[in-house]
Each structure stands twice: as C-alpha cells, then as structure tokens.
Amino acid sequence: MQIPRVFTPGSPIDHKDFLAGRLKERDQAIAAVSRVGQHAAIYGERGVGKTSLAGLVHQFWLEVSKDHSLIAVRINCDPLDDYPTIWANVAEEIRERLPYIEGEEEESGAEPRQEFFRLREQLESVIAGQATPNIIRRMFQQATDYTFIVVVDEFDRLNSQEAIGLMADTIKTLSDHQVNATLIIVGVADRVDDLMHEHGSIDRALIQVLVPRMTTEELDQIVSNGLHRIGMEIEAQALSFTSRIAQGLPYYAHLLGLTSSLRAITDNRIRITLEDVIDGLRDAVNNAQESVQSAYYRATVSPRKESLYRQVLLACTLAQVDELGYFYPAAVREPLTRIMGRPYDIPSYLSHLNALSSSERGGVLQKTGEQRRRRYRFADPLLRPYVILRGLSEGLIKPQDA
Description:
There is one protein chain. This protein is an alpha/beta fold. It is built from 17 helices and 9 strands. The strands form 3 sheets. A 5-stranded parallel β-sheet has the order 2-3-4-1-5, with helices on both faces. α2 (23-34) packs across α3 (50-65), α6 packs parallel to α7 and α10 runs parallel beside α12 (274-286).
C-alpha cells in the first residue's frame, strides 16, 4: 500500500519531490552549500518540517551542481552527547559512505586517491573519540576531492554547554579556512541564539533559516499532491477542514492525510469526505499518548461548574497565530465568543490564559513577552487536535468552526 509511503507523520520526507512549499528556506540552505565557508542553522517550532528540509538539502544541491563527489550525512543528538560523541557519529556515517565511492573508482579502473586513505585514517581517529575543532577541520581539508554536507539534528537536546561552544568553534574554523564542508545545525528554537547560546562570533559564517508554519495553500498542496500520487481525491470541505486543523504544521497534514485516506480505503472509496477526516482525527487522538489525555485533564479539571478552562483552551486552538505559533490574548476573544454564544472581553479570560501557563495546570501554554505584549502558544502541539476533538464531541464547536 502506497498511503504510508506518501503520508509520513512519523518520519521526515526522504525525497525532494514529496516536499511541498519551502522554496525560500530551500534556497537559503542551498546558498550555504554553494558558498565555501558558509554554514546553516535551520530552526523553528516542533512539527514544522525542519528535519525534512535539512535532510533533502543534498538532493537539491545535487540537482543544481551535479556534484557526484558529495558525501551527505545526518545524525541526531541526544542529551548525553558531548562533542567527541557527536563527531564520532558523524565519522561513522561518513565511513559508511566511503566504500561506495571507493567501489565506483574500482569499477572505473581508477586508482583510489590518496585523499581517500588520509580521510579514512582521520575518520578512525575521530571515531575513537579524538575530536577537536582543529582535528575536524584537518579531516575535511585532507579530503580535497570530496564535498561534505553534515546535518546535526535535534541540536536543542544537547545538555553540554561545552559541546555547543565547541560546535560554534568548529563552524568558525571551517569558515576561516574555507573548508569545503557545510555544517547544518537543526533544532527547535525561536532564535538562532537559543540554539547556539549567543556565540556571536559565528554570525557571519551562519545562514539563519527560520522554518515558519506553512500557509493554507502549502498544507493543501501536501494533501492534494499526496492523494494524487495514490489515485485518490478529497472533497473541498474536507481539505479545508484538514488545513485548518493542521494550523500551519505539516505534521498534522500528513497525519490527517494518512488517517482519513485509510478510512476511505477501508470503505472501498477513493474520495475522502469530511466525515473521513473527522473520523481520522478521532483515530489519531485515540492513538495519542496517555500523556496528552492527562495533560488535558490537568489543564481543564475544576470543581466549579462555571469554570471556563475547557472553553478557553478550545478557543486557544482556534486563535489566529503568527509564524511561530504564538497568539495574543485578543485573538482568543472571537472564538471564545462563538463557543459561549455571548461576547467575552480579554479581562474575563486573561487569568485563565495565565493559569494554563502555570505549573499548577501543567504549563500546557507557553508564555512569552512583556506584560502588555504577552503572547501564548501550545507547549505540546500534539495536545491541540485532542482539544479540538473534545470540543467537537462535546458540541462546543461544529466542524466548520474548527
């Protein structure tokens, strides 16, 4: 079945033809590869497709450059990583690519280049844990016949401040020596400084690629193009509902594309209806982690019947957000008025927003900014569809309101 191949909420896109939109961000990343001494930081909120974009940069670069000496690798960081383990993982990935390049040379009758042997020797040293910014620089410098793209993903998970500092030093030394290797740092952040911890000395060497939420048109494109590839289609109302639920996050477009198309196929249909999308949303929520359900209960439970926590949280899911997923308190007014059937002003629910941002209610909302410029967003984007489904099932909203 092709459906799980086309809609992949659980894994990044692995082919450039499946990537919708992101033209500006793609061109920024390619610019980093095309300029020796330039590197990139790809950042944004969770679920916007940073890993997919970063993992496809080499495919777009090959399309432009026809550079068949390219070695592209991607590794994920975890909280226990330090600088040597990051580069040991990178070196292992590069070593896995080298036999293919060596084999190509053997098939063509050419002698393996000296760079190949020098690089292999350096890789073994780095894998053994001997990594410093200068050693990494020399490793790449000695492999003059190769072009490298190294994606270091989930950089925000690093706990080692020393590792972050040394990665900044590595970017600087690779840039200063015009080494033909591009590092692409990827992580959840609102600013590059949140990733690199304000190592300003690398600003000139780093192209900053903010991956914002997608437009409605781009989300429509994800679903429509995916369905076209598997010979299915979707009603206009169902497509509109899907994009509204996704609220700029391609993760949800893929998730609802997957669940709704499976619903239709089970019913021997190739045309997806609004009911399929709602049922697909229900399937996705039912399969959600218990932590999501617990977070909702903690955020909304109250002994007082007149409590508005359920309604305010639901209104937050319907509020207009910016490219980073934040909304102002004023954006909650209109959806809350619709839900409650009578006008509500900011003072009547502002205390609820602040409570939903507190540890007492699980901190389901993140709060940022000065008091009169306060903004909020969901701390866990996975909670949002659950809140919407609860609102639909409890009759607080209709599908056209979501």
